[in-house]
Amino acid sequence: MLVSWLTDRLRPVTGLIAVAALVAPSLEVRAQQGSPPGAPVELAQQQQKPPAKPRPGKPAGPSAASRVEALPPSQIGIGTLAKQAFMVDPQTSTVLLFKDADKPMHPSSMSKMMTIYILFEELAAGRLKLDTRFRVSERARAMGGSRMFVELGSEVTVEDLIRGMIVLSGNDACVVVAEGLSGTEESFAERMTKKAREIGMTGTVFKNSSGWPAEGQWTTARDLAVLSWRTIDDYPQYYKYYAETNWTYNNIKQDNRNRLLKTTAGTDGLKTGHTEEGGYGQATSAIRDGRRLILVVNGMASMAERAQETSRLMEWGFREFTNTTVFRAGDTVAEAPVWLGSQDTVPLVVPRLMQVTAPIGQSVSPRVVAKFDGPLPAPIAKGTKLGIAAVTLPDGRVVEYPLEAGVDVPRKGVLGRVTAMISHYLFGWWS
Fold first, then answer.
1. Which residues are catalytic?
2. CA–CA gap between residue 64 and residue 61 (Å, rounded)
3. What is the fold of 2-14+328-430?
4. pLDDT tens digits, one per residue of 260-294
């Protein structure tokens, strides 16, 4: 029998501006499920300054504010110059900005994040080390576009290749990695697509390791946000490379193309990209006071516009929303009855912080229900997953957290078990 315990001190409220969930059943943001948000919902618009007066002798162009207002609005959140945009608070699975985020788009150099993710996976598994070396082929050396400038026949360490892909956006470095791990870039691209499906990137197909334009190569803004979070959450020991602002290889110093690392507080990654067909794009993450936001934009007209618009949207996300703590890690959500245990109940606790994202100034009191199969048979080990906490937000969405045993509950002794069973069979029908 399913037993549900309602936490009385958390009552539902109305009036919260609707937002959408990032498809993660336990707030781990590890897999994409469900369809994209349906009906358009508009969050508070950012206040815009009046356009500057034109200088004498110069025709006045449209201001950034007027250009944003002239564009079709986002389905969720404020208007943006980007053709596709997606912003999420991964800690609460709350989407703050959604503009055609499930529409296929060219991934450009943001594809490199998957090449890097697979390289991190190999390092974490112990199959590679940072000083492992890969040989440079003619195909790698001949790559055009942004380059690390590796030399034909040389052997490059994995750590240098990581920096070459992240900081320098080297297409040549990507080919070196692809050939080093899979033999050919074509087989590595198949591995990239397979890994994309495994982590929930349902709208992505890779054709090469670098994002070089290729027929049939697609992704979505939402998918790149999933990849961004998985990189941060799965491999924090290697994610630090994304924050490096410049690097020198082969006596050539290059700056990271992610300008927000220097201009927008808290930015620590991830990757820029550009193709003629898709325009300028960027996957960005920033953290302030323990709160992280992930933003993906694409379809911008220039590097400068990409940097300005990405910074504007990130500042909006931090300024207009905040996280409210519902339960802290280790807090008891409910007490579950125990069968034949040394104690009659066991506390059900949340193993991680439970928070809700809401616009600044709005009170949040979600409805929380603990669900488990009970009574729970002893013995019970502390940390055993026993159920879920279903959090119903004021807009009707339900987000689930795991519930674990807060303490060890041994079985009763033989005499205690016999007494309990006799009592149950003799008097249980009265209840």
1. 109, 112, 169
2. 9
3. Peptidoglycan synthesis regulatory factor (PBP3), Domain 2 (2.60.410)
4. 999 999 999 999 999 998 899 999 999 999 999 99
Q: 171-200 burial by CB neighbour count: b if 16+ within 10 A, else e? A: bbbbbbbbbbbbeebeebbebbbebbeebb
CATH of domain 99-322: 3.40.710.10
The pair of three-digit structure tokens given for residue 144, joined into one six-digit string: 């055009």
DSSP string, 216-235: T-BB-HHHHHHHHHHHHHH-
Per residue in 148-161, pLDDT (tens digit) is 999 999 999 999 99
Q: Say how many residues make up the chain.
A: 431
Both tokens assigned to 399:
């987000």
Q: Which of 123-137, 200-214, 346-360 has the lowest mean pLDDT?
A: 346-360
Amino acid at 325: T
102-120: b (≥16 Cβ within 10 Å) or e: bbebbbbbbbbbbbbbbbb
Give the separation between CA 299 and CA 306, rounded to whole angstroms. Answer: 9
Phi-psi region of 207 (alpha: psi -120 to 50; beta: other; left: phi over 0): alpha
Helices within 183-286 (DSSP H only): 185-198, 221-234, 236-239, 260-263
Question: What's this model's pTM, rounded to 2 decimal places?
Answer: 0.77
Is 291 strand, coil or helix?
strand
Asked if residue 270 has a cis previous peptide bond (ω within 30° of 0), the answer is: yes
Helix (H/G/I), strand (E/B), else coil: 346: strand
